Amino acid sequence: MRQFIKRLRQDKVGLVGCIGVLVVVVIGLLAPIIAPYSPEQMFTKHTMEGPSGQFIFGTDEFGRDIFSRIVYGAQVSLKVGLIAVGIGATGGLFFGLIAGYLQGKVDQIIMRIMDVFFAFPDILLALTIVAVLGPSVTNTMIAIGIVFTPVFTRIVRGTVIGVKENEYITNAVAIGVSPIKIIFKHITPNIMAPFIVQITLGLSGAILTEAALSFLGLGVQPPDPSWGVMLDSSRAYMEFAPWTILFPTGAIVFTIFCFNLFGDSLRDILDPKLK
Amino acid sequence: MFKKHFLFFLLLIVTLVATACSDDSASTEENAGDSSVEQVLKIANDQEPAGLDPHKTPAHSSVRVYSKVYEGLVTFDENMKIVGQLAKDWEQPNDTTYIFNLVEGVKFHNGREMTAEDVKYSFERILNKETASHIASYFSNVKNIEVLGDYQIKFELTEPNATFLTNLTNSSAAIVAKEVVEENGDLQQVAVGTGPFKFKEWVPDSTVTLVKNEDYYIDGLPKLDKVVYYTMKEEAARLSAIRTGEIDLTTLTAKSASLLKDQEAVNVKGYQSLEYSYVGFNVAKEPFNDPKVRQALSLATDRQSIADIVWDGDAIISGPIAPSMGDWAIDVEKEELYQRNLEKAKELLAEAGYPDGFSTVITTASTYADMVDTAQLLQQQWKEIGVDTEIQQIEWGEYIDTWSNTSADILVGRNGSGTDPDRAMNYFFHTDGSANVWNFSNSEYDAIVEKGKSTVDQEKRKEIYVEAQKKLLNLSPNLFLVSPKNYVAVRDGVEGYTPYPHNGEDIDEVYKK
Amino acid sequence: MYTYIIRRILMLFPVLFGVSIFIFIVMRIVPGDVAMTILGTDATPEALEQLRKDFGLNLPLYEQYFNWIGGVLTGDFGESMRTGQEVLPDILNRFKLTFELTFLSALISWFIAIPLGIIAAMKRNSNVDFGVRIISLLGVSVPNFALATVIILILALAFSYSPPVGYVGFFADPLKNLEIMIIPAVVLGTSMAGAVMRMTRSSILEILRQDFIRTIRAKGAKERIVIFQHALRNAMIPILTIIGLQIGTLLGGTVIIEQIFSLPGLGQLVLTSITQRDFIVVQGAVLFIAFVFVMINLLVDILYSYLDPRISYK
C-alpha cells in the first residue's frame, strides 16, 4: 500500500485524477452543506435565469438552482456508478470464481450464458433490461450491473485459471486444503489488480451509461437531479439558456475524465506489464 | 503498408471537401433561378407514421399523411362548420336517417370512379370486427347502410344521435377502395384514396412522399406538385433544419417557438389546440374516492403557473371542454375550484380525514416532456397542503396500458377534447364511456350527457353541456389544467397556409413563391 | 487452424439460440400491450381482442416461440405488427446505413488515433506523450450525445448549416450520402479514437521493449523503420482486438446518434419498436444485431490468430 501511494505520487497525471475523484466524492457526501438550496425547490419567479450572485450557475426552466442540482447530482451519479459496478463486480466474482475453480461442465454453462450477454451491444442490453423493469434509479443500477457482469466474470475466470496452475495451489489442493480457503487465501488476492482496474474504468462507464439512458428518458427520473437527466431536459433550450446544458455537461466530463485519469494510472501501477 | 492507408485517407478527405464545396455551388444556382420555384413542400414529422391504414391507425403521425390522400363524406370548414366533401349534400328525413348525395365523377388514384358502393364498403370495413378499427365505436349506432343509386346512400341509426355528422368528419372515416384492400390484405403500406395527393413512397424512419393528384375533382387544387414528410424525432434537429431552410414546415414546442421569434425567413404560427392537460384519479381508491380530497387538490393547484412554466405562458386554463371549442366551453376561470386557496384545501382535507395530508404516486409518460414537467410542478404545489408525491415515469407503451387498466392512482396526461362535446363529456366520463378509465360513476351526470347526445337542437344542447361541465368540475374525477397552443414554423415563401385547431396542417391551398 | 475456426462457428449456434430465447422472453414480460399501443384510447375491447388474435398472442408461449424461430430459420422474420412491413428486408436495408456509419466512424477514429498513438509511444514521457494521453482521455470522457447536440447547434448558429434531411443510400447519391453521414461519423469517431489511441501507444511501447526490437536497433536501423516495419505490425494485434470490439459496440451504440441525426438505421428501429411494443421487429432486429456482433468477434479472433502465430488452437 505504501508503495502504491509512492508510485501514485510519482505519476502526476494519476495524482490529478485521484484528487479530482476525491473532490467529486466529497462534493457528493457534503451535498446538503455545499448546496445553497434544495435541488427540487422551484423559484418560479426566476425561471431560466443566467448565472448571477444568487444562482451562480443560473436556474433551469422551473427556476431551480442549477448549482445545487449539480452538487446533488454528484450524489446520484456516484450512487449509480458504485452500486451498478458493485452489482457487476459481485456477480462477476461469484460466477467467475465458480467457473474458473470448478471448470468442466459448470464452467461451460456459465460461460455460454455470459456469451449470450456478450452478444448484445452494451447500450442495447441496458435498454432492453430497463424496458422490462421500468425506468427508475434502482432499475438503471440493476440494468448496468447486469451489463457489466460478463466482463468481470471473464476477468475473474481467466485469472483463476491462470493462478490455479501455480505450483503452490496444486500443492495446497494435494494436502487437502478446503476449496473455499484456497479461493479466499490464494486466488482472490491475485485477481485484485485487474479487478480494481476494471472497477475504476467501470465506474466511468456506468456514469456515462446512466447519462445515455437518461438522455433516452429511460434512466433516472425527474425531479431527481441526475446530470444525465439535466442534460436531457435542457437540450431543447440550449440556445436560449446555454448554461442549463453547459454546467451539467462540464460536471459529467470532469468526473469521467478524473475517473479515467485515475483508472489509467492505477492500471499502470497495478498491472505494470500493460504500461 | 502504412503509406497506402495514408493515401486512402487523403483521398477520403479530398472527396469530403469536394462534397461540401460542390453542394454549396449547387444550392446557390438553385436560388438564382427564381423564375419557377419548385412546388415541393418539405414537412418535418416528429414521429414515424405507424402505418397508413385510415381505419386502423389513430396515430397523429399517420393521420397527417393519410388525411391528404383519403377523404370522407363530410368535413369541417375553417369555422368548424360541417360541409360536404365527397358528399355534395345530405338530407335527414327523420331523426335517425341520413341520405347523402355524392359528388359525381370522383376518381380513386387508381383511376376507378368512386361510387356509393365504396362508401358502403368502407363503413362495413370499419364496423367489421376483424378489421379491429379504432373508430368502430363511433359508428356502433349505425343500424343499416343502403345504396340507393350510384351517387346516393342512406344511413339508418338505432337512435337519434347529435354526433353522427361530426364523427363523419374524422380523418379515419375515410372512403377506401375495395380492390386495394383485397389486393394488399390491409392498407398499412399502400394508400389509394380520392384526395388531393397521391401516395408515392414510404422509406421507413426517413421519408413519406406524396405527389399531386392531377385528376383531382376540384379545379386548381392542389397547388403543390409534391409533399415530402421527413421523420425527425429530435426537436433540436427540426429547429436547425427549419432555420437553414432544409425543411419548409414543422410543428414546434412553445419554447422552441419563442426561440424562432426573431429568426429571419421563418414565420411562427400559433393556434389554440383542442387538447388539455389533466390529472386523472382512480376514484375507486382511497383517498381519491372522497370528492373532498379531489377538490382540495384542485384548490391546491396553481394552473396559471403550469401555463407559464410548462407552456411558456401560451396556454389557456381549461375545463373538460377545451376553450377552442368556442361556445361549448364554460368560462372555468370563474369557478371556485379554480381559485388557488390553500386554507380551504387544507380544510377540505381535514374534513375528509387527512388533516396532515397523505403520500401518493403520480404516474406520467416519459415520452412527453410537458407531462413530466406538469407532474413536477404539481408535486411542488401539492406539497404545500401536505400531500407528498413521488413521480413515476413510464414509457408510452406502458403508459397507455396503465391508463386503460387504471393501474395508477394518479395519472398526468393530455386529452384531445374532440370536435364535439359528446367526446369530452360522454366518452371520457359517462359510467359506460369507453375512455372512462377512472372508475367514475354518477347516475345524475350520466343522465345529463345521455340527454346531450340525443338532443339535436343546438341551443338546448348547449345548455345541457353547461350543466354537465359544472357538475363534472364539482365532482372532479379529473382535474382539468390548461389547453396549450400549438405552434407551426413555416419558411418564408410558403403561401396560403393557415392552421386551425381542428386541422393544423391544411395544405390543399398552399404553394411556394 | 481450420478446426479451430469450425469449432468457433459451431459455438455460435448455442449463443444465438440463447439470444433468441432471451429476447423472446424479455419481450413477453415487458409491460405494455401492443394492441393497445396501436389502437389508442378509442379502441373497443373486441377490436383489441381481434388484433391480439391476428398477432397470435393468444397461443401458448412455446408455440409462439416455435412459430417465430421456425420462420427465422427459413429466412422469414415475420411482419411488423404496427406497419405490416416485412421485417427482414427492413433490417437489411437499415443495416446498410448502420454499417456505413460504423465503418466511417472507425475510419475517422483510426485516422486520428493511430498516428497520435505512435507519436506518443515514440516520444514516451515527453510533453507530446502527455498531451496525447490527455486528449485521448478527454475523447472518452465526452458523452457523444452531448457532443452531437453541441455540434448541431454550432453549425446552425455560426454557419447556418444543417445536414441535409432525408436519408439517401451511398449508391443512390454518394456525395449527398457522405454529407449526411460525415457529422455523425465524426462524433462517433472522436469518442472512439481515445481508446484506440491508448491501445496503440501501449502496444507499441510493449513491442519496443522486446528483445527482437533491441536486436534490430543494435544493428543500427533507423527509428522510423523500427516503428513502421517491425513494431507497428506486431502492435496491430491488440489494436485490432479493441477495434473489433468497438465496431461491434458501435453497431448497437449508434442508437442515440441515429436518433439525434434522424438516420433510419438499425438502432433507431430497435428503439422505436421497443417503445411501440412491436415484438416481432424487436426480436428480429436484436437477433440480427447479435448475429453480426458475434460474427465480428469471430473475425477478430481469427485475424488475431493469423497475425500472432504464437497462439495455439486446441
Percent strand of chain B equals 15-25%
Q: How do the helices and strands follow one another from N- to C-terminus of chain A? A: HHHHHHHHHHH
Regions of chain B with pLDDT < 50 over 5+ consecutive residues?
Answer: 1-12, 16-35
Please tally the helical runs of chain B, counting DSSP H or I stretches of 4 or more residues: 15
| Assembly status | heterotrimer
Structure annotation, total helices of chain A? 11
- What is the CA-atom radius of gyration of chain B, in angstroms? 26 Å
Give the termini distance of chain A in whole angstroms.
19 Å
Radius of gyration of chain A: 22 Å
Average pLDDT number of chain A: 83
Secondary structural class of chain B: alpha+beta
**Share of residues in helices of chain B:** 25-40%
The largest pleated sheet of chain B is described as: 8 strands, mixed
Fraction of helical residues of chain A: over 70%
Which band does the percent of strand residues of chain A land in? Answer: under 5%
Mean pLDDT of chain B equals: 85
Largest interface: B-C, 68 and 64 residues
